[in-house]
Amino acid sequence: MKYEKELKKAFSISIPVMMGYIVLGFAFGLLLTSFNYPWYLAPIMSIFIYAGALQFVAINFFNAKAGLIDIAIASWFVNIRQSFYGLSLLKRFKNSGNFKPFLIFGLTDETYALLTTIKDDESLSKKHYYLFLGLLNQLYWIIGCTSGALIGSYVKFNTAGLEFSLTALFVVLCIEQYKNLKNIYPFIIGAISSIFALIFVSSDKMLIVSIVSSLILMFFLRKKVEA
Question: Membrane-spanning residues where (predicted)?
Fold first, then answer.
């Protein structure tokens, strides 16, 4: 295989995401079928939506029979953080050619964390390495969601608590980020912003407020963050 080295590298660093996505995707599949939705909705949503948090929220949309405008507004708020991720990767994806649309589509929180944590190997074809990383991560998610939905169609499970696997995955990736950066300030800023939003802001606006607060704090502490 021409790009075997890029594929092996992408697979080796995506193993933590695989462990999290398969478990969390399995939970999503179980939850979806527990509301008597057909199992095939899980792979369809995983291929065309591919957004963990939004897919969980979508189940509530379906149950509440929400309108398209309500769904669009809620989806925008849930996924607006991806805009900030994308801006920071403009240079990396600059020479990605025909792969760029998929790289943009597949830029999940976990993929972004890997791209900003693992140092690039200059001997690799970057655009193929990025492509394989994105494809593998989405494949893990599809496998998890589909298997959970299939099993959930025949066996009933108590799904309480399974969604915590996403939080656990973020904790692991956060630790890896700190090991790579050796700079505590971004993590302190993130913690302060999150606690502030948790206490003073309603849950539906917590994410956007915490992101904006983090940006403001990073601007004022720019020198220490860049150090």
Answer: 12-33, 39-62, 129-151, 157-175, 184-200, 206-222
| Number of residues in the chain | 227
Of 147, 148, 114, nearest in space to 15 by CA? 114
Which residues have C-beta within 8 Å of that of residue 100, sequence separation ≥ 6?
A: 93
Q: Which tens digit of pLDDT belongs to each residue from 205-219? A: 777 788 788 888 888
Q: How far is CA 39 from CA 53, 101, 163, 170, in A?
A: 18, 28, 19, 27
Q: Kindly report the CA angle at 133 between 127 and 146, in degrees rounded to 5? A: 140
CB atoms within 10 A of CB 4: 8
**88 neighbors 111 (Cβ within 8 angstroms):** no
What pLDDT score was predicted for residue 186? 84
Name the residue among 169, 198, 143 with its Cα closest to residue 29. Answer: 143
Using only the alpha carbons of the chain, give its radius of gyration: 18
d(CA 72, CA 84): 19
**Encoded amino acid at 202, one letter:** S
